[in-house]
Hints:
The complex is a heterodimer. By secondary structure, chain A is an alpha+beta fold. Helix content of chain A is about 35%, strand content about 20%. In chain A, α1 (about 5-15) runs antiparallel to α2. Residues about 1-35 of chain A have low confidence and may be disordered. Chain B is globular and about 55 Å long. At the A-B interface, α2, α4, β7 and β10 of A face α2 of B.
Amino acid sequence: MRTLCFLGxxxxxxxxxxxxxxxxxxxxxxxxxxxxxxELAPPGxxxxxxxxxxxxxxxxxxxxxxxxxxxxxxxxxxxLTFMYLxxxxxxxxxxxxxxxxxxxAAEDPALARQLQLISLSFDPAHDTPARMxxxxxxxxxxDPAAPDWLFLTAESQAAIxxxxxxxxxxxxxxxxxxxxxxxxxxxxxxxxxxxxxxxRNIYSADFLDPRLLLNDLxxxxxxxx
Amino acid sequence: xxxxxxHSRYQTPLHTAGAAVILCAGLLFSAAPALADExxxxxxxxxxxxxxxxxxxxxxxxxxxxxGSDKIVTVDVRSGSPTFGKVVDVDSVGGRHExxxxxLTDDRRHYWVSGLDxxxxxxxxxxxxxxxxxxxxxxxxxxxxxxGVVGPHGAYALPGRMLISGLSNSKKTGQxxxxxxxxxxxxxxxxxxxxxxNPMGAINGEKADGYGYDARVLPxxxxxxxxxxxxxxxxxxxxxxxxxxxxxxxxxxxxxxLWDFHARKPRQVFEVPGVPLEVRxxxxxxxxxxxxxxxxxxxxxxxxxxxxxxxxAKSVGKIGDPAKLPLPVDISLSADDxxxxxxxxxxxxxxxxxxxxxHSPKLIYEKKIGSQVNMVSQSWDGKRxxxxxxxLANWDKGGEDNEQFLKAYTWDGKELTPRFExxxxxxxxxxxxxxxxxxxxxxxx
Lengths: 225, 445
């Protein structure tokens, strides 16, 4: 099984014990299964009902170009997470899980073509397109077979606020702005969005298991056929 | 730091990313450790940091008492506040719906409360002004949208969603389901409970009885555990009539169901005779077990996973004298998994068990709270407890025994010491039932 050594630079940049722990576990795709060993229902054996329409948003890509989130969803399967680069706790964990998923999906060319990962910053003042691009270069698998992974931000805090509201993503400022795990507090959620722009699952940190995500993606693929 | 130390989940240096994920699921709104909050809540919820500031009491209206309507009663529990221990806000929803249970959304912005009789669900905004909840949405098509589920009971936070456990169905019997909604109150899906006729592939499925009550998740094991009560035909009928009707007494739940939570599929059915009600998962990172109590047989039950990842349910102790039908109702497990509070309605007692060994609970304290008692809510640090009195409008006691109160205590590990109490009849409020905690410190965004 391939390793994800290239992740080291990105995660070590977030120099916290948590990030280091996340890096250590990302060397092999064992994912949360290291701690959460349980049997998963086979793809297609369960339903993923529509939870609601995934909100559109005008955002900035890594080149600073305007992109419409709703357009990105069309015809793709998307795993969307909210994050910020100064985060020292949940975001590196989520990034590691997404990297693991990227690696797993790369072994399934049909799925890899349909899948895209999106990491969206809610800290646009700090997370400029250039910084997101730098982060993206460190995180993306250097394999043409791997699924796309976009790193998006917004023009301003005013631009991201309605997006956070639409996705029920409360973000607060910690009492200590110098908190080593980052200045912002948030509830980690990842959204699985289908090709018609409907949210089909919402994951907490506990369920960001790449095997589980892969099963959900395959379930949606099977549904389309 | 001990694995079962409640704060270890938030402060321990992490050795694995898996452990980090557990930590991060809870550490969300502040850098400060979570010291308060209510234990026994959904693990998906944001946590209060510091002490709870308000207790929101979902209260049944009572004819001739105040406006007679069901209502949210907001009580100030801030130590040192000039209105400490006082009602600071009352929000009637109009009419009597058999107010019973409810819960907070994962972002803790909304408090969902429901009516077992009217099937209406009321969504209160408790974030904009935690001292002054506001009704923002009413769901009045629960039965139609869910495909015939009635008696919306608990409201349990899932990521971005709410899980409503039903008690009954359009025929008023006990076959029921779990119903999912978005946080905005839009219907998503219905998951019917397994029955012997339709076990849905569950192990021991021939023992499934289809009843429902509580449903709670242990995410890291991908399991959900549900319990069983009775249908509308019994819970809306006077208790005296029910217990004297042998046919009615056959229509109570005696099972629990372990689900594959991710797939929402029943995995295994346990026979738990005598109406298992509240489900309380342990919090410790390696504590793969839950407690429940059985109302009619007066026992504490343990549902646990063994070293071979097989799940079992067994009785681990009696509550009071089962022959006297004390009727255990709510239970509350401390955040360090060491102490279980068990309320019993008929004798008005709270009993405290040392459950450090979950297979062998030991009674360490008991106290009569009132002529009747039902719900108990405990702060995360285990130092403050709140009790309410009402069970169901037609099951509460009559005459002078119909005490209706909120009583607050401190707990020092040895005894309960009164902090304040509110007489809900004298205050013109009604029958207090479910409590949830709120705090303005959460909403800094």
